[in-house]
Amino acid sequence: MKSPTTTTGVGGGPWHWLMQDTMEGLRRRRALLGYLFLLPTLLGIFVFTAGPVFVSFGLSFFQWNIFKPPDFIGLENFERLLEDRRVIIGLVNTLKFTVLAVTSQVAIGLILALAVHRINRIWLRYYFRTAFFLPLLMSGASVAVFMGYIFHKEFGPLNYYLTLLGIPQIPWLTSSDLVMISIAIISAWRNMGFTFLIFLGGLSNLSQEVLDAADVDGAQGLRRLWSVTIPLLSPQILFAMVTGVIGALQVFDEPYIMTRGGPGNASRTLVMVMYEHAFKHIEFGYGSAIAIVVFLMILVMAIVQMWLWRNRVFYQ
Amino acid sequence: MSTNVTRMPGDISAGEHRKQVISHQLGRWIPLMVLAIMSGVVLAPIMWTISTSLRTGVDSFTVPPKWLPTDFAWENYAQVFETVPFARQILNSTIITWGTVLGQLITAALAGYAFARLEFKGRDLLFWVVLATMMIPIQATVIPVFILVRSLGLFDTVWSLILPATPTAFGAFLLRQYYLTIPIELEESALIDGANQWQLFYRVYLPLVKPGLAVLAILSFNFHWNEFFRPLIFLQHANYPITIGIFQLQGYMMTGSISVVLAGVVVSLVPVIIIFLFGQRYLIEGIMRGAIKG
Q1: Whole-prediction pTM value?
Q2: So what's the pLDDT on residue A80?
Q3: Do residues A62 and A70 touch, judged by C-beta distance below 8 A?
Q4: Residue ranges of the domains in chain A?
Q5: The listed CATH number (3.40.50.880, 1.10.3720.10, 3.80.10.10, 3.40.50.300) that belongs to domain A80-309
């Protein structure tokens, strides 16, 4: 806050420094209003986001459940984590899911956007955009429930059509080898609407001059696509990949609802393991240690994202 | 597709041209076919869900699968409400979602204005700090927030979900962009007309950022209506929202009729479909602003 000592002008009273009818008074009123308007957001973020991150770090050095006082154990949680089979399986499953889901949703989204961009009829564009966008609005829970039935080995419609093609019934969600792949397919089904929109936006912003220059140079068809259009879309592709990875590392709803982490531990993800330790076994310290691992992986991706955004925030 | 090229003996460019015409036609039809197939892949599971929710139990997994509703067993929808406390869960979801949306609109409208139009010491630094917290995943905060919520006596109340979700870095950031698009001249003329600082915000700026408020409200409604992870942690039986309701239904119905479960799923999608029909423009704008102009 500005000190009242620089007061100029007429009048007096304790609020004079603020209420005086000069440019200086106006500036001070606006500054005070700025702090007041920010207060709810700053306070809320401090109490519910920024503060808790540091508390999570702190908790990861303790052994604690709600019934006994916390006990400082140094790095023991992290040592335990390195030898915890479920944590390692959870990490491997999460990474497998991330690679599969992100590459497929980026690749399919890109293909769909390139195709829709070529369509001139407005109603047809609108139809496709609407169709691809719809699953994005649905909850992970509802998608998991109906996709669980569609991917059912004996009764599911998917395997019905595959058997018509002579393919034997595939145990999508009941085989340890396939379950993460199936969940990645289902997740990509939902999220490709997002990457599609990002790429369609990018395509419509492409400079027509560059594309015309490519035409003059005789770049046609796939060659033009590969050496002109896709490089020009690289900011959007990077963005889609980074946000995709950040989301995929947190995967929980779909495997929790469709398979409860099974068969065995084949679809147990890192966040599921964290949830079980923190809220089923009430091990806040160990749960926090796993949460910190998730956080650090996402932090790396977030730093990449901030770096991508560095010149994009303050213009306009 | 006919080519208008007359073939001349020894004319190689005719063949070249023909090739170009064919590849041009392929370039038109292949994308259309890909799109037709993919829109089928996207819409078919949704159609199957709706039509199966209206089948009698014995016909749930009818072969071959039927994509359009043929019989209309509305009793499945009634049975959802008898199997789980679905009415209560819908009410819970509604309270939690609207509470959060309202809280976010108020805090973000204020913070966005401060970041966009008010000058004070440390503003840009604070903006970056707020922006950085957008990157913090829920897992990194959920345990301390759980402990806090318990010690405040808010565990298993709607407040345990509404309060922590009310401050929104994304919302502040989004609305800041809308405030920035409003010409500063409006502000000057309002001040000349004798408006004070609050009137300037409330009567001049706020009505002009309504589209931004709509975008935030719709994105936030959709996100919080669909939430599963936090309700699972912060709430218990009677206070569960609809997402956990359909999860419970699926659990009870493992051996029963999946048509009832899918009826529950369809009910949970109703608000989402309404948003989709009336607010698609805002949703797409929100996603684009969050991403491209980011």
Answers
A1: 0.87
A2: 93
A3: yes
A4: 17-72, 80-309
A5: 1.10.3720.10
Q: Under an 8 A CB cutoff, do B27 and A221 touch?
A: yes
User: Which CATH number is associated with domain B76-291?
Assistant: 1.10.3720.10
Lookup: tokens for B281: 């423009």
Residue B221: predicted pLDDT:
93
Rg (CA), chain B: 27
Interface contact A133-B280, CB threshold 8 A: yes
Rounded distance between C-alpha atoms, residue B194 and residue B182, angstroms: 19
d(CA B26, CA B118): 56
Min Cα–Cα distance to chain B from A221, Å: 8
Which segments of chain A have a pLDDT < 70?
Answer: 1-12, 215-220, 309-316
B72 CA to chain A: closest CA distance, Å?
A: 19
Give residue-wise pLDDT tens across range B250-292. 887 665 688 889 999 999 999 988 888 888 888 887 777 765 4
Encode pLDDT of A143-152 as tens digits: 999 999 999 9
Closest CA to B178 of B120, B113, B132: B113
Q: Which helix (H) or strand (E) holds A63?
A: strand A62-63
Chain B hits for A194, Cβ within 8 Å: 287
